[in-house]
Amino acid sequence: LAAFSGAATAAVSCDADSEKPSSGNGAGFSNSLRIPPILGPETGADGMKQFNLTMQAGGRTEFQPGKVADTWGINGAYLGPTLRVTRGDKVRMRVTNQIGETSTLHWHGIRLPAKMDGGPHQMIEPGATWTPEWTIDQPAMMGWYHPHLHERTAMHVYRGLAGLIIIDDDNKPDLPSEYGVDDVPLIIQDKNFEDDGKLDEDGVEDGTWGVLGDSILINGTFGAEFKVTTRTVRFRILNASNARVYRVGFADNRKFHVVGTDGGLLERPVEVDRVKLSPAERAQIVVRFAPGEQIVLNSVGETERSAGDPEEDDYDLMRLITAQDLADSPDLPSALGGVPATAPPAGARVRTFRLSGSEINDKEMDMNRIDEVVPAGAHEIWEVINTSYAHNFHIHEVDFRVMELNGHPPPEYQRGPKDTVFLPKGATARLSVKFNTYVDPVSPYMFHCHILRHEDKGMMGQYVVVEPGTENQVARTINAGS
Ligand code: C2O
Ligand code: CU
Ligand code: CU
Questions:
Q1: CA distance 164 to 74
Q2: Could you read off the pLDDT of 201-213 as tens digits, one per residue?
Q3: Where in the numbering of this chain does the Plastocyanin-like domain appear (predicted)?
Q4: Ligand 1: residues whose CB is within 6 Å?
């Protein structure tokens, strides 16, 4: 039995009329924030850092005091450990599937050859072990791993299969960096619970949005409370929810700084009072605290979800209590060393993607169809036009920059390296996308909506990266090509 709560006391109080625990003062948030443990690798004779990961069913997790939920996890009952690696490391993941059904494990935001990507084609049968290897070759960032089985991703993630990957490199601006103390990951997920404390799976594989939960877990902690012991804290926030979009900030609307986006650090900190995160997006923020405070991390604002009128969608996420004596923290550096954006070359190829209800360019995902063929190293413009209700758009393997959102540059805090962009109803995004040089004309990478219900319904396509000049020789049908 895994109880993530430290001293488990009262559950989050839910107002009977409203379906969400949003009181604004964090009442009931008293379970110590769980910090995902860092998994130490084994170092093989070949110098590879090997991470042993077992996807397991049968977890029993006490999210709410005295109530047990059946959960899935990686090396544990719910969620998985944090993998910490350094640019230049050669890594080997040994992924064993013990969940009793086929799955995959995808390294979201990680740059690597398509065969190692863990997308829908790299299936791991029950009882089998899959062992991808690659060299970490990208700037410091936080990515994550999660299953990606076609039509089953939403359920596998909802039950608890997900974890973080943190990459370090030689660029070390003076930011808070003690893991779990002043450099704190926050994996935000919304869930529905049955009265007996079990995860309510109704709707996960149904309807327009799949599941929209009325309870929030942070790192698998229900009603989370975090004790701040330093003047400033860096939070690395991941929206690992199936469908919900958060506008993260503080109940007192204090300002804070964004220092990083999905794919790494910004060039300089950007002051904001909210960051919007759709499923799979990340933000690194640095927040300043005073001694003896009680503050609530929350999400407020309109959903931008449906075609109809916007609805308010307010949630308390976590309570923060600051110590009477706070340890000193570094001053926020004015330069962070993030990689500057480079504009696409004149005449860059433009590809257009129209998102509708559950299709991209009027097509549903077909595992046997290659949708796009990209020459290695290309720098292209991908224009994503949302013709319907809210979606987002994630491209495997790449860092991109959002050049324009509805004809304007995006908010400054979203101008860093990205792999996922949110498109409210009717929005258009122009992305500057630089592709890698891991050539493989047969194994595709995915691009898709990361609202997991939409992805499972087929809102996904496939691209391959090929030697420049060979685009026309590539088989568009995977079976024919192999
Ligand atoms: Cu989070 Cu296709 O990925
Ligand atoms: Cu991905
Ligand atoms: Cu979508």
A1: 11
A2: 999 999 999 999 9
A3: 64-171, 207-290, 356-466
A4: 106, 108, 146, 148, 280, 394, 396, 446, 448, 450
